[in-house]
Amino acid sequence: MVKAINIAGESSSHAFLLVQAKTAVSFTQNLEDASAKEKDTMVTFECETNEPFVRVKWFKNNMEIFSGDKYRMHSDRKVHFLSVLMIEMRDDAEYTCVISDDENTRTSARLHVEGAALELIKHMENIEVPESYAGEFEVELSREDAEGSWLFGDKVLSPSNKYIISSRRGRHTLSVKDVRKEDQGKYTFVCGDLKTSASLKMKLRPVTLMQPLTDLIVCEGDIAQLEVRFSQENVEGTWMKNGQAISASERIHIVIDKMVHKLLVENVSTEDAALYSFVVPAQDISTSGKLSVQTIDIVVPLKDVSSIEGTKAVLEAKISAQDISSVKWYHNDKLLTPSDRIQMVAKGAKQRLVFTRTFASDQGHYKLVVGKVDTSCSLTVEEVHIVKHMEDKVCSESQNVTFNVEVSHPGIDSIWTFRNQQIKPGPKSKIESKGKAYSLTVIDAMKDEEGQYMFHAGEKTSSAKLTVSGGAITRPLQDVTVAESQTAELECEVANANAEGKWLKEGQPIDFNENVVSEVNGAIRRLIINITRPQDVGEYTYQVANSKTTANLRVEGVKIKKTLRNQTVTETQEAVFTLELTHPDVKGSQWIKNGVELQNSEKYEIISSGVVQTLKVKDCNIQDESVYSFKLGKLSANARLNVEKIKIVKKIKDATSLLDGTASFEMSLSHDNIPVRWMFKGLELTSSEKCKILSERKAHKLILKNLDSSDAGEYVAVVGHLQCSAVLTVEALQVTKPMKSVEVPETQVATFECEVSHFNVPSTWLKNGVEIEMSDKFRIVVQGKLHQLKIMNTSRDDSAEYTFVCGNDQVSATLTVNPVLITSMLKDLNAQERDTITFEVTVNYEGITYKWLKNGVEIKSSDRCQVRSRQLTHSLTIRNVHFGDGGEYKFVAGSGATTANLFVEARVIEFTKKIKDIKITEKKKAVFECEVSEPNIQVMWMKDGQEMDMSEERYIVTAEKYVHRLVIQTVRMSDAGEYSVVAGSSVSKARLTVEGRDIRISEPPEREITVLEKHRATFEFEVNEEDVEGHWLKNGVEIQFSMEDRFNYVTIRKLHRLTISETYRSDAGEYTFIAGKNRSTMQLRINIPEPPQILRHMEPQSVEAGKPARFSVQVSGVPQPQVFWYKNSQALSAGFKCKFLHDGNEHTLLLIEVFPEDAAVYTCEAKNEYGTATSTATLNVEVSEVVSPDSPATVAPPVIISPIASTSACEGAPACFQCKVRGDDVKISWFHKKTEVKQSEFFRISQFDDSCQLEISRVYPEDDGEYTCMATNNGGTVSCSATLTLDVTHVREQAETKTELEVKELFCPQRKEETVHCSTELTATWQLRGAFSDTEDFIDHGLVSANRCSSRTSSISSWTENIKPSFTKKLKFQSVLEGEAAEFKCKLIACPPPTI
Fold first, then answer.
1. What positions does the domain Ig-like occupy (predicted)?
2. Residue 367 pairs with which residues in a beta bridge?
3. How far is Cα 928 from Cα 916, in angstroms, rounded to an integer?
4. What does each C-alpha distance from 1090 to 772, 1093, 1165 come to in angstroms?
5. Lowest CB count within 10 Å: 350, 1100, 1165, 1329, which one?
6. Is the pLDDT at 17 greater than 70, yes or no?
């Protein structure tokens, strides 16, 4: 039970928990051991549980296994299966099936796998391997799990760089690397009792002579060196002299250095001159060279030389041979070696010893030895003294310093050194000499140039110390942190703008390149890393002499915040790939397609704006389909571009139009909104008054107006790489076959016809200059190019001039109507009853229209009265004449007429009983009865003076001796009239009066019908009964359907329909439908078609940004034109921003809020089937200038673009209100029944851009009602409201209550009153979890209700009403299995918070 108590009262809720014991699951059939052979296909284990559909798990050696390529597991109700596939030796194990919910319940069995017999399938084979190559032995066993060992001779081999041992699926391999002579021998593979052997033999590689012997010339007494080189080491060969083998001695040395063989002969004499050879017998290689020995003589000996210390000196001799380099120079009998100062030069026959700078120690005795001859001389050197020594110097960094020295002799080749390195003239040093004075200037001295400077004049030196004080760097480097690929700049400032320094990274000089550059700008020193990478992180130093400054560069990794997405576009469209990074302004990024980096071009536009990287692929085609990648260092993202191919579904067709007419070309594409370019004579067409280009989704149309001959030609529609063309032919409208004058007799149809150059063009017919309208008299027919005017039932009044007008062309002809003349008149006739008589008349024309009348009433042809025509003669024959046939007969044809009388001599028969007047209701039976004086005579029945047609089934005529009857079975309203019965010369008359029934005629949908001339008009009335006879009147005159072909009357059960198939202007008027004694009327109006016409044009608008704009136009036309709106020739559709308004003839385009991008030319197009009219105006959007701070800016009030809409929600379900508000600095407030709603856990208020939203997390009864969204700024306030309706479902609550009562009665019977109280007391918002085991603090739970109350209002203090706790969701009966968790929930509302 849960009880909630507060000062307003208490409430409680009860529920019962039923805990059922679980059924123990056990195995009724355990797993059984199984055996299999290696490489068997499958083994299956099977077990059974006592309960069906029990979940189990399978284990192998207590490790869980799962279904896959190796194992298949499935269950069939109580039976569980495990199949082990493709048996291997490692499948030998214990398999266990375990109940998932109780892992202590299990059954196990073992799978025994019997290995296959071990056999050698493939033995080792002998191999021969080239020297230094690898040799491989392979053995194949029948079992994959068998292991073996390899032996070389008796030595067991183990894996190493020399021996590679491997095995896979029964194949065992030994690979011997870099085969040498010592690797040759027998190799063996042993596996158990199986053994196989094979031998390895090395194949020697061929030796190649790389450097042969060449001829050699040496001087007598020198050392001769002969040398050969081979492709391999340690080649065995022999040196030969004139074919005799040479052996080593004290004077002859044989040297082998790997691939090189040398022969050295010391103290060569003329006897050593010979042909020397080196022979390799094993490879059949031999090479030879000739050794020649020269004897040298001194031609010009050395001469004594004197020199000043520090100047140049040369000793020279001439010998008998040219270019001999094997000479030796001695100084005081000590062998000289060349140096930078002393050089030995052989030039032709001259041998020189050159001193670039003499030292005093160079004085002495010199000897030149060439072979066995020599020559000597003396060198005298005059010493030099330093008269004035250098002085120590002190300077600041970047200053110039000069050292001066004076010596005893001029012209000395002096040397300046710093730190034992010779100083050469350059940008940092300047060396000068003037007579005996010598100077060194150190330019821009730096700290690193501090130290000992020395002057050398021969062997005499003078030195001084340079001290450089610091202060070279005035502004140090600062630490820099950048994102990867961004530009990093390290900057410092030096004291001397001309000072030079160096950049170091981690103490090492920086390797400058295109990416890493240094800049000097006056005293500013800058290191720029254009595109940073993680490897650029480190400590950077700038050093000027001994001054240095250091800073750290940190590079943060750039990540992708918003990755690329696949794009699908249609051909010709632009594809845009966008990617968002975590850092702005990165550099070095690449866009790649198919491995090729993309560059900015007409095709591709690459944009980097802040963190957003964009690639635009313009004018897409199928070749652009690919994967596009963005790369930034190691960072990359990919997306695919799919290009849908455009197809021209409907091509433009050739068109022919008239001068000043309108022509149109239409085409359809496979995709929406694809731009189409229209070309004519190589130029692109643009929208204008004459040329209109329309596009709506897949349809594209070109309309050309007011055509002239220059508009004729080929028009091309271009869509991407596709195009289609059509030819426009402009023709003048003319009459090609004029009409002829017509002469017809009266009553005949006169037809004028003429032919024009084009099909179905509008035309006009005139009679004596007056336009002819379609009517029963005049019929206008158009069949293709043929135009006809038919004049029906001509009379002499129709004689006139008729004119046909078509376009600018017209033709005329005359109609002559000749009168009909009667050439033979009617004559009076006398007849007796039952005679046959004939009236006959002759006229002057055949084929005329005529009629016969009796006593002024037209006679219709019947079985007794027959009307005949034969050429010019017309006759009326009456058979079986009776007294009633007597009277005046008249023949009428046009204006001609003739009259005669028929006299019938009848017997005198008297009526003993005459027929009597009858008054009867419609649909009843009427009977006329009379008696005559003579029996069995023939009588004639007439109605309104005309003989009745007795063939109609409703009429029954009977005669019984003296009595004659006429029976009308079902009387109709049309049966009313005067009835006569004629017997001999006697006539009896009576009147039949028919009263209509009270037929109810339903009200028609419209009392007035308006149709266009030549269109169909339909009148419909519905009555309350079926089988009702109706009558139709036009302007009070009954319509004779037998005479009017265009009028059709049908009855469909209770519906009565009158249809005029083709209306004329004369058909306009009042139409009356009569049924029974009731009637109903409708009006018909006939409109003449009119093309659309703009009565009031649009006017240009200039509107401030953010304000609405309105274009209005007044349009007329019959039928009512359809109106379309365009912006820069692109069709507009109604939406949030754009509204189409229509009031009568006025059409309005309303733009709710305009911005600079809305500035355009707007067009209104009115169109019906008879033409098109347009009106155009320009919209200019004014952007307000920046307002100065001292004058307040005018703020426009907010505008609600999309108001909130009413909604409904079930109790406990969420609800949401959304609206769109546009304006500056708008504050949004929400109200419920005039109380402001605040943000809370129950009410979530959000606002993003123009959209604002109120979301109610759970709806309860107190939440229903009106909600208002109010938008406020400095310009004003707007609001919109909507209603939330609570959707209460009683059925579910009743079902829950009924179930709970049944459970309570079952488990805990109690008084009925308590049960009712418990079930009906529970009503609102709380959640309590069973056993109070939730992680939430239930002491604070009581506050939830009050918080919910307070969250609905501005503050908790404004809530004054106390609410007794009431449950909206009560506890429910729960049934769980033993060991399971049970959860109870309830919801309540209360204020103040209750105690739970």
1. 23-114, 206-292, 464-554, 731-816, 819-889, 906-993, 1092-1180, 1197-1285
2. 330, 376
3. 7
4. 18, 8, 16
5. 1100
6. yes
Residues near 1064 by beta carbon (within 8 Å), at least 6 away in sequence: 773, 774, 775, 776, 1013, 1086
- CA angle, residues 964, 965, 969, in degrees to nearest 5: 165
In the three-class reduction of DSSP (H, G, I as helix; E, B as strand; rest coil), residue 973 is classed as helix
Asked if 1256 and 1262 touch (Cβ cutoff 8 Å), the reply is: no
Beta bridge partners of 887: 902
Question: What is the per-residue pLDDT across 178-217, written as a single tens digit (0 to 9) for each?
Answer: 888 888 999 999 998 889 999 999 887 788 888 999 998 8
The answer to whether 952 and 1026 have CB atoms below 8 angstroms apart is: no
What's the CA gap between 752 and 767, in Å, rounded? 12
Distance from C-alpha of 68 to C-alpha of 704, rounded to nearest angstrom: 72
Q: Return left, alpha or beta for 121; rule: phi > 0 is left, psi -120 to 50 is alpha, else beta.
A: alpha
Listed residue (64, 60, 84, 62) closest to 72, CA to CA: 84
- H/E/C letters for each residue in 1083-1147? EEEEECCEEEEEEECCCCEEEECCCCEEEEEEEEEECCCEEEEEECCEECCCCCCEEEEEECCEE
Angle ∠(253,257,258) on CA atoms, nearest 5: 145
CA distance 562 to 56: 45
Rounded to 10 deg, the angle between the 1312-1320 and 1290-1307 helix axes is 140
Strands 1171-1182 and 1160-1168: antiparallel
CB 141 within 8 A of CB 118: yes
* C-alpha R_g of the chain: 63
How far is C-alpha 641 from the geometric centre of its chain's CA atoms? Answer: 8
Q: Tell me the pLDDT tens digit for each residue of 875-911.
A: 999 988 887 788 899 999 988 999 999 988 877 788 8
One-character DSSP codes across 812-851: EEEEEEEPP-EEE----EEEETT--EEEEEEES-SS---E
Nearest to 1194, CA basis, from 1106, 1102, 1270, 1101: 1106
Rounded CA gap, 1168 and 1091, in Å?
7
From the list 248, 534, 519, 544, the residue with the least C-alpha distance to 397 is: 544
Cis peptide upstream of residue 1119 (ω within 30 degrees of 0): yes
CA torsion 171→174→178→184, rounded to 10°?
-130
**Contact indicator for 252, 264 with CB cutoff of 8 Å:** yes
CA distances from residue 277 to 226, 235, 1048 in whole angstroms, order as listed: 9, 15, 135
The DSSP letter of residue 1395 is B
Residue type at position 901 = N
pLDDT tens digit sequence for 275-296 = 999 998 878 889 999 988 888 8
Q: Which two tokens stand for residue 55?
A: 């979940």
Beta strands at 127-130 and 604-609: parallel, antiparallel or unpaired: unpaired
Q: pLDDT class for 1184, splitting at 50, 70, 90?
A: low
Nearest alpha-carbon partner for 1028 in 992, 995, 1056, 1059? 1056
φ and ψ at residue 280, rounded to 5 degrees: -115, 95
Q: Which one is predicted more confidently, 455 or 235? A: 455
CA 1119 to chain centre: 42
The distance from CA 630 to its chain's CA centroid, rounded to whole angstroms, is 19
Task: Count the Cβ atoms, other than its own, within 10 Å of residue 908.
Answer: 11
CA 1393 – CA 6 distance, rounded (Å): 7
The 3-class SS string of 410-445 reads CCCCCEEEECCEECCCECCEEEEEECCEEEEEECCC
For the cut 90, the answer to whether the pLDDT of residue 996 exceeds it is: no
Mean per-residue pLDDT, 982-1004: 88
Contact (CB, 8 A) for 1259 and 1214 = yes
User: In angstroms, rounded to a whole number, what is the distance separating the alpha carbons of residues 115 and 40?
Assistant: 11
